[in-house]
Specification:
single chain; about 400 residues; mainly alpha; Rossmann fold; about 5% strand
Length: about 400
């Protein structure tokens, strides 16, 4: 309520009021909605205060007065309430603004056909908390009587008190929230500073790590380049050295021979130690000696025959081949199990017509296999102690008589 409500009530009486006597009763029963200047003056203050926000009210008053409103909010409110008592430019503008703002609520209230139905709609709006539009639609409804108008004003008066209390409580909570927000903002600023410092440290560490990684990659690329260069040089050296592959194989074979000799020496030492510890033991078996070739009274022809040479020096194999092929024989060779597969010896023995066994350059196993095969098959076998070319020539001369003497190598 405004302080000037009592004074304005006498100077600007309402044109139509539901608080009037029997003369106004026919007007209340019409279907035309009432205008704002036709309402009771007691309704103007809550209607303007609740129905229109202060910003919108000042804008509307400034538009009607044609200038800037210099009065404060209270004076603007009181002036608008005063002008609502009669029909004028401002009251008509206020009526149009309220109609526009709450058109959807007015449309909902049109279905009410009695004061009780209007009261039900008002109570539903109060329960829902949306009273501004319902207050306007209910007061201007054709079926709103004086009793309902007074009840609506009372309800709105109490709602405003409750709203004020809620606002004060909300202000306390708001102030508390503002303080908590300020404290959290300060804490957030500290955390942001810490995070920025940590981010700067991590960025510096990442840059250092990237630098180290780039250095490592550059070193790796340099090493790869050096390796490629060394490989190219190695390939050139290999191409520049003739017979490197054969020399490599010879070196490997020499290493095998050295290992074999070392093993044999160790076996000899073990045998000597065993013999020294057991003086009563029977004497060790004599070393393997090749049986003398059983000379034939009639020499054999070697033309188109296969001659297998078992053992001998690898460097003399070409000379062995030339010597044997000179008499028309076919040459075959087996090293006696040093590098060639020992299992291939049986097939070589079976295909040969004559076997020449150089006992100084074969293994014990190969020697016994050659001897056993020749004994079982009756095949001619010549045993030679010295793996020289002259010894081989003498053995062939002894067998065939067609070989000319060769100087010893």
């Amino acid at each position: 309520m405004c302080d000037k409500d009592q004074a304005t009530a006498t100077t600007h009486p309402p044109v139509i009021s539901n608080c009037a006597g029997d003369d106004a009763a026919p007007a209340a029963l019409t279907s035309r909605r009432r205008r704002i200047w036709e309402l009771s003056h007691t309704c103007h203050c809550p209607l303007v205060g609740v129905g229109l926000p202060l910003g919108g009210l000042r804008k509307l008053v400034g538009k009607m007065t044609g200038g800037r409103v210099l009065a404060d909010d209270y004076e603007v409110h009181v002036g608008a309430v005063t002008e609502c008592g009669s029909r004028n430019r401002l009251s008509e503008a206020l009526h149009k603004e309220l109609e526009r703002r709450y058109a959807h609520v007015v449309q909902r209230f049109r279905g009410a056909k009695s004061a009780d139905q209007v009261a039900q709609l008002w109570q539903a709006a109060v329960a829902g908390g949306d009273v501004a539009g319902a207050f306007w639609a209910g007061l201007t409804h054709p079926r709103c009587d004086a009793e309902l108008e007074e009840r609506m004003c009372r309800d709105l008066h109490m709602i405003q008190h409750q709203a004020g209390a809620c606002v004060r409580a909300d202000m306390g909570k708001f102030n508390q929230l503002v303080e908590e927000n300020a404290a959290m903002a300060r804490e957030l600023a500290k955390l942001q500073q810490r995070s920025q410092a940590l981010l700067a440290d991590k960025s510096t560490e990442l840059e250092r790590t990237d630098g180290l990684l780039m250095q490592a990659r550059a070193q790796a690329i340099g090493k790869d380049s050096v390796i490629d260069g060394l490989r190219a040089q190695l390939a050139q050296l290999r191409e520049s050295i003739p017979g490197l592959a054969s020399r490599t194989r010879l070196a490997q074979r020499l290493a095998q021979m050295d290992r074999r000799e070392r093993d044999l020496r160790m076996q000899i030492v073990d045998l000597k130690q065993t013999q020294a510890r057991a003086p009563d033991a029977p004497p060790a078996p004599a070393p393997i000696k090749p049986e003398p070739a059983r000379g034939m009274k009639m020499p054999i022809r070697l033309v188109d025959r296969s001659v297998l040479c078992v053992g001998g020096r690898s460097g003399n194999v070409a000379t062995y081949r030339a010597l044997i092929e000179r008499v028309g024989a076919q040459f075959a060779h087996h090293d006696g199990g040093l590098e060639d597969n020992a299992n291939m010896l049986d097939s070589s023995l079976a295909a040969a017509d004559l076997v020449i066994c150089q006992t100084g350059c074969i293994s014990h196993s190969a020697y016994w296999r050659v001897k056993d095969h020749c004994k079982r098959t009756g095949k001619r076998c010549v045993f030679i102690d010295n793996p020289s070319i002259s010894s081989l020539a003498r053995g062939l001369q002894e067998v065939s008589g067609d070989i000319e003497p060769v100087a010893a190598v």
